[in-house]
Amino acid sequence: MNINWYPGHMAKARRLIEENLKTVDMAAELVDARIPSASRNPDIDRILAGSSKPRIVILNKSDLADPAQNRRWVEYYESAGCKALLFNSKNKGGKPAFVSAVKEAYKDRIEKNIARGMSGRHIKIMVLGIPNVGKSTLINSLCGVQAAKAEDRPGVTRTKQWVGVGDGIDMLDMPGILWPKLDDREAALLLALTGAIRDEILDTEGLAVKLIEKLRDTYPNMLKARYKIDGELPEDNFEALQLIGKKRGFLVSGGEINTERAATVLLDEFRGCKIGKITLEQAPRG
User: Fold this and answer.
1) The pTM is what?
2) Engineering a disulfide at 33: which of 43, 51, 59, 238 sits with its beta carbon 3.0 to 4.6 angstroms away?
3) What is the predicted pLDDT for the residue at 286?
């Protein structure tokens, strides 16, 4: 399955990031906790290369991911010297942990500012990440109000916007960017599965079959429990999709199974955590 989506506004977004980097003190990079590696844009590393600005990685949507894998991914990032924080942008109670993590990552600069008599200086943070990873929702969660435009679909934020979130922190919400050519097919697949690429350009049934293939290997019992499947899953993943459609009663005239509807429901229920808390990328072992 070949997947690529790089609308023109993303090239503009990259230029905006490069132009505004000098105006901020640090970067907060959001990743999807279900796919922490695939949801990191390598362009962001290149843009930040050579910059002395601190960075914090925020594993957003951690409430949808496997708790055991969440812990392992935090350990992995921190062992590599990068401050990492689990976050759920839809939970308004996460602000204290975020503020603490930011001040820990920026503590050297805070101490220098205090020594220079600039203790009241706000920390300016650029919020970076791919589309639909929750950047605007994160900012709104920290503010407690709808300060940044946010929707559960990729490509909503098209330009930068500054938002003060309190506690001496100002955040610059930037448009999400994918990389121009998704040569890594596995990363592209994972991005599509989690909704970072518009469903309209994808083969929904093919995507659902790929999801079944992955869940068969890692979370088969969750999949079988959700769709009330007794015994083993059919060896053929398309047949497994047909079985899911049959279990849900998605039949059309002649008794055929509506696999397109079954595929849409499977993807929606995975993304909505109705199958269970699932991480599609396992944390590297140290």
Assistant:
1) 0.85
2) 59
3) 59
Which two three-digit tokens encode residue 78? 């921190």
d(CA 201, CA 212): 20
Cα–Cα distances in Å, from 33 out to 40, 156, 195, 240? Answer: 11, 20, 13, 27
Q: Please list, residue by residue across 38-53, b when 16 or more beta carbons sit within 10 angstroms of its beta carbon and e when fewer do.
A: bbbbebbeebbeeeeb
Residue 148 confidence (pLDDT) above 60: no
Spatial distance between the Cα atoms of 185 and 35, rounded to a whole number of angstroms: 14
* Tally of CB atoms within 10 A around 181: 9
Q: What is the 3-state secondary structure (H, E, C) of 50-92?
A: CCCCCEEEEEECHHHCCHHHHHHHHHHHHHCCCEEEECCCCCH
Q: For residue 143, what are the CA distances in angstroms to 89, 94, 152?
A: 11, 11, 19
Identify which of 54, 163, 165, 160 has the alpha carbon closest to the alpha carbon of residue 102: 54
C-beta of residue 270 within 8 angstroms of C-beta of residue 193: yes
Asked if 148 and 102 count as a contact pair (C-beta separation under 8 A), the reply is: no
User: In degrees, to the nearest 5, what angle opens at C-alpha 92 toward C-alphas 84 and 282?
Assistant: 35
**Structure-block tokens of residue 149:** 């435009």
Report which residue type is found at 262: A
**5, 201 contact by CB (below 8 A):** yes
pLDDT tens digit sequence for 13-65: 677 888 888 889 999 999 999 999 999 888 788 888 767 788 899 999 999 99
221 CB-contact burial (10 Å; exposed 0-12 / middle 13-18 / buried 19+): exposed
Of 156, 213, 153, the C-alpha closest to 1 is 213
